[in-house]
Amino acid sequence: MKPLKISGYILSGIQLIVSIVAIYFAMSTKLVPFHIGIIASIILVAIPVGIFFLARLESKKLRILAIVLSSIFIIGLSIATYYIYITNKAMDKVTGKTTEVDEINVYVAKDDEVASINEAVDKGYKFGIVTTDDSAHIQETIQKVEESVGADVETVEYDSIFVLIGAFENGVIQSIITSKGTLAMADASEETPDFSKGLKVIMENTITEEIEEEEEEVSLDHFCIYFSGIDTFGSVTAKSRSDVNIIGVVNTESKEILLVSTPRDYYVQLQDPNKGKMDKLTHAGLYGIESSMHTLENLYGTNLSYYVRLNFSGFQNIIEQIGGIDVNSEYSFESITEEGQYQFAKGVNHLNGEQALGYVRARYAFTDGDRQRGRNQMQVVKATIEKLESPEALKNYSGIMDSLEGLFQTDMSKDDVGYLVQKTLDNGEWTVLTYSVSGSDSEKTCFSLGSAAYVMTPNDSDVKYGHELIERVLAGEKVTQDEINVYIENKDQEDLITEEKPTEEETTESSSSSGN
């Protein structure tokens, strides 16, 4: 048998094997519609079979052509299989996540000579705890401390993190046992800005717990999903304040997606584990993703079937991997963060990962505060997606996929995500609608702080209209962005007509409010 014919047989056999592997990995992602997968499978199997018969022909030129074609297909399919494999691996990492982490640490002053929990107990330190933390997790940490040192520890309980900090600074207590999220909340306050910079950790206790999910029949043709945007360094699974809170209403039959945004400072009634307590919506995240979900369910009178948690700090890695992004800023402004000081010009700015974080974190630079920060965050998300859709993203596809694990997580299974992607591919263009509720500025007592702070009192008519929009989209009723905009414009006009001059007390409240 001639060498060219043998080479053609071997290469067509290798091509067939590579094709089968590529088909397997592609179908295992659950992202490929079944009928497209079948058609692609038939084609990919037919090609090496055709090349095999081409290699059997007596013509030398045709045998060479068969070898060249087979070699090209093998190389192309091998590259495609690699990309499909790392996509599948990334999907496995971020989907079906039903656990989250609460980080409880023991702190002392940074300049304290004590370097370990044993030394602190030996010196008779008093440990301050706050009642607004998860009591079970705090007690578990205390028990762990006592088991570690073989002695009881003295704790002092406080109703407010600020009162606890005052006692620490006055020497009443020498150590603090609290969650990382609670400390971050104190750092962001006007009362104790960056307080944690003066502390050091002498013991860590990371508690992983299962997110309790209700057993329910979920129709993937019409459902609600909660998008939580957090802004912390570290794991996306960590309990943290939620700065972005969006309900996504999906109807695959009417091809509509409604995004209902609720301000982080909305003054709402918390649900489990602190049912009935009043606080900012953002603070619900300190008690877990399900607390935020149940709080929003109670506010809008709807059911949230899934969650997606997005970490804006995770964007830093992806933005670096794709070579930066371009955003069109509405204003010239300065952003000062722990990482540095950043200047942004009005108009188009090219941002690297670190600059993008500075861009989305700026709040006090704007008259509109959190509302403008929310718009900037959406700009960065949109710019990142657009860059990911460009051919440039393929240059570092592997690095981008690796970065996804720190960027977001969801309790949706890979099968469910795949079903939605397939629906999107099958159904063509979708209509995406947006709506944001509003309210009035005020200052009220927040449960997690144990003191008064700036809040936004909900506009009941806005919440009611949000509920109506959710129900209409779920029912498949046609909703347009124009009618939503008309409602907002009419409401704004009514607000201007009915607005009363604020009292001196209200003016004082507004000017002294903080953004915890």
Topology overview:
Blueprint: H1 3-28, H2 34-56, H3 60-94, E1 99-109, H4 117-122, E2 126-130, H5 135-149, E3 154-158, H6 161-169, E4 175-179, H7 180-187, E5 199-210, E6 222-230, E7 244-251, E8 256-262, E9 267-269, E10 278-280, H8 281-284, H9 289-300, E11 306-311, H10 314-321, E12 325-329, E13 333-337, E14 340-344, E15 347-351, H11 353-361, H12 370-388, H13 397-407, E16 408-410, H14 414-427, E17 431-436, E18 439-446, E19 451-458, H15 460-474, H16 481-498, H17 504-511
Parallel strand pairs: 2-3, 2-4, 6-11, 8-17
Antiparallel strand pairs: 1-4, 1-5, 6-7, 7-8, 9-10, 11-16, 12-15, 13-14, 18-19
Helix pairs in contact: 1-2, 1-3, 2-3, 3-13, 10-11, 10-13, 11-12
* SS-derived structural category: alpha+beta
Largest sheet: 6 strands, mixed
Summed over residues and divided by their number, the pLDDT gives a mean of 86
Count every beta strand, where a strand is a DSSP E run of 2 or more residues. 19
Helicity range: 40-55%
Low-confidence stretches: 497-515
Strand order of the largest sheet: 16-11-6-7-8-17
Q: What kind of oligomer do you see? A: single chain
Strand content: 15-25%
Structural write-up:
This protein is of the alpha+beta class and 516 residues long. It has helices at residues 3-28, 34-56, 60-94, 117-122, 135-149, 161-169, 180-187, 281-284, 289-300, 314-321, 353-361, 370-388, 397-407, 414-427, 460-474, 481-498, 504-511; strands at residues 99-109, 126-130, 154-158, 175-179, 199-210, 222-230, 244-251, 256-262, 267-269, 278-280, 306-311, 325-329, 333-337, 340-344, 347-351, 408-410, 431-436, 439-446, 451-458. The chain has a 6-stranded mixed sheet with strand order 16-11-6-7-8-17. Strands 3-2-4-1-5 form a 5-stranded mixed sheet. β18 (439-446) and β19 form a beta hairpin. α1 (3-28) runs parallel beside α3 (60-94), α3 runs parallel beside α13 and α10 (314-321) packs antiparallel against α13.
